[in-house]
């Protein structure tokens, strides 16, 4: 059975993807294809490259993604996205999609012509960096004449990119969207974050029904997109939410099987 794993964007909340992967592995569920956007592209890329969930968690703990030591000079962003190349190369020593253990697709947005770009071959690390380049925070990444930023702008939950290849699709979506109070919008970054979530929510929610198993960690609204202060808490929420979703799916399958068996018994007649 071909299983697809789809990982949404979400900034620091993407750490929940790692917890979900741990839970899936404990139930012997491994993807045949992976699709990711932004933070999901980072986690998905490392996982497709053969990194364990422990190694991916270590990456987030040791790579200071949102610190200003990587300040962008003469680039349109606070952080220079390409300065993270070295950290990624430690975990992905062969910088090419052909070296991945699991086929991967990631999305990025070409700011020059406003189109979605799907990367699945050629150089790997720069495409992951491009997919994760949140506008206004990370500088866009230039690749073969294109100028790329966050894939979540146009496709934050790329179920559509691998669904046709898979018998079953598992989606992990880590962006919260609830009604909030005015007091929650005190700072510029709060406004940016809220606007970003509004933009994504309408397009993304339509894709939930395309997943055979949907994992949506609770309490994600408690964690900022750009803060790595709660790595373990976010990881654990992803793990617990995945376990709950898997158990619920098992119960649903068992109930469906019981119904089928009951119908078969009721429909059985004895003839002489």
Produce a short descriptive summary:
Helices cover 37% and strands 14% of the residues. It has 272 residues and is α/β, with parallel strands linked by helices. Strands 1, 2, 3, 4, 5, 6, 7 and 8 form an 8-stranded mixed beta sheet that branches.
Compute the number of strand runs. Answer: 8
> Number of helical runs?
7
Give the end-to-end Cα distance, rounded to a whole number of Å: 43 Å
Q: What's the helical proportion of residues?
A: 25-40%
Low-pLDDT segments: 268-272
Beta-strand percent range: 5-15%
Largest sheet: 8 strands, mixed
- Written as H for each helix and E for each strand, in order along the chain, the element string is EHEHHHEEHEEEHEH
Q: Which value, in Å, is the CA radius of gyration?
A: 20 Å
Instruction: Choose one word for the global shape.
Output: globular
Mean pLDDT: 86
Structural class, by secondary structure, is: alpha/beta
Descriptive tags:
14% strand; 8-stranded mixed beta sheet; alpha/beta
Task: Describe the protein's architecture and organization.
The structure is a single chain. By secondary structure, this protein is an alpha/beta fold. It is 37% helix and 14% strand. Strands 1, 2, 3, 4, 5, 6, 7 and 8 form an 8-stranded mixed beta sheet that branches. The longest helix has 36 residues. It is globular. The C terminus is likely disordered.
